[in-house]
């Protein structure tokens, strides 16, 4: 399914293959020989998304751009089942395994591997040929790569990256943080009520 969102329509190379149950919405450019499988969602929420050549987006993966963080995925990259990419830049020949999470402002260098259920956190930077092991967390610039049981170290680096401030423009110490966050984000997402289905 393809949708015009905020006046922008997807641009899909004729050699790309899009499953009928995939959703492509807004300012999305998909390159030659890409494969987007069943249940995948690629949604440009105010910022563009670009997939290079031969990118594979597997079942139920989510790729989302925001007005402040575009998404670029380099050629010959595989986005595994149930992976999630939000507002990040991914280099060429990158492997994002099943269930990986890549957050806003992150940059992953070419030929890197982010293994099953691993996380590349907000504004974190992985140099080329990096490996994030199964279930581990990459956080910071340059990224520290830590196992999940080192939560205090992860949190120390993560707190400095300021997720609510960077993504939502809201101070973490705001007493009604979640009220402001959900109301503001909800208004932004409600713009989909004006989407136009193209197919």
UniProtKB/TrEMBL annotation:
UniProt superkingdom: Bacteria
Organism ancestry: Bacteria, Bacillati, Actinomycetota, Actinomycetes, Micrococcales
InterPro entries: Hexapep, Transf_Hexapept/Carb_Anhydrase, Trimer_LpxA-like_sf
Name of the molecule in the record: Gamma carbonic anhydrase family protein
